[in-house]
What we know:
Chain A: It holds the Pfam family DUF6152. The structure holds 2 protein chains of 2 kinds. Chain A has a single domain (about 5-125), classed as CATH 2.40.50.140. Chain A is about 10% helix and about 35% strand. Chain A has helices at about 10-20, 70-75; strands at about 5, 40-50, 55-60, 65-70, 90-95, 105-115, 115-120. In chain B, helix 3 (about 20-45) runs antiparallel to helix 4 and helix 3 runs antiparallel to helix 8 (about 130-150). Chain B has one domain. Helices cover about 85% and strands about 0% of the residues of chain B. The chains are: A mainly beta, B mainly alpha. The interface between A and B is medium-sized, with 16 and 16 residues.
Amino acid sequence: MRFTSLGRRGALGLIGGLAVATGARAHHGWSWAEGDQGTLTGTVREVYVGPPHPSLRVEAEGEMWTVELGNPRQTARAGFTEASLRPGQEVVALGNRSRDSSERRLKAVRLTVGNRRFDFYPERIQGG
Amino acid sequence: MLDLIAASAPAAALRGSVTLYLLVNAAHVLGIGLLVGAIATLDLRLLGLFRASALGQLAPPLVRVAATGLGLAAVTGLALFSTRPGTYLENPAFLAKLALLVLALGNLALLHAGRPWREALADGPVGARLRLAAAVSLAAWLGALLAGRWIGFLQ
């Protein structure tokens, strides 16, 4: 697992992970994600831009992660389209990962592709 | 093949329009509603409920409504599938749903092809074979509905 936390995690995340049922709140809100942000660096395997929820699948150290972007409108506002990123490219996703540590899911606030940045939730970027 | 499906005009249109996606999604739910509503009523009749209504009277409109719902759900389901076919085929809930659909449709074909069904429509007796088929039908369609609802939580 290659997910680098920027802040405190540990016990809090563990308790949250036990309290939240796996996958039971896909996509909506932030309550399922940790409060602290971290970065995930990996190779893009799938880019999906469209309803109901734009997302990426990113392979990092042999593990497949789901990286959720903003909703379709927020994703468009960030300037991100299907053409912004191709499978095979490297991407750095900054965001909040699932409190359930067995789940490889990250809600991204920012993507960095080469020297391009896409900010999906500018107001949520920590230390940014 | 999967890339071709994903690149098709309907798939691109659905990915490009939240409104269109919402309408197709709603039509899919409507199709499931018609299908399951009609089939559950018919299955329950075969299992012994609603005996006041003759099966010969009840069955033809229910079968027609269910077939319409099935057609609507199939067409809209294929359209939704086309937006990201590779991802759906890797989704365990989607695969479970497909398996349950195969079971439900196979059961349906067996039921309708047999003589017991024709006899029951002529208001003859409903035998054990028909009641078993009705129970399998209820379980398979409800299972497919549950699996279908779970798809979005795994991707």
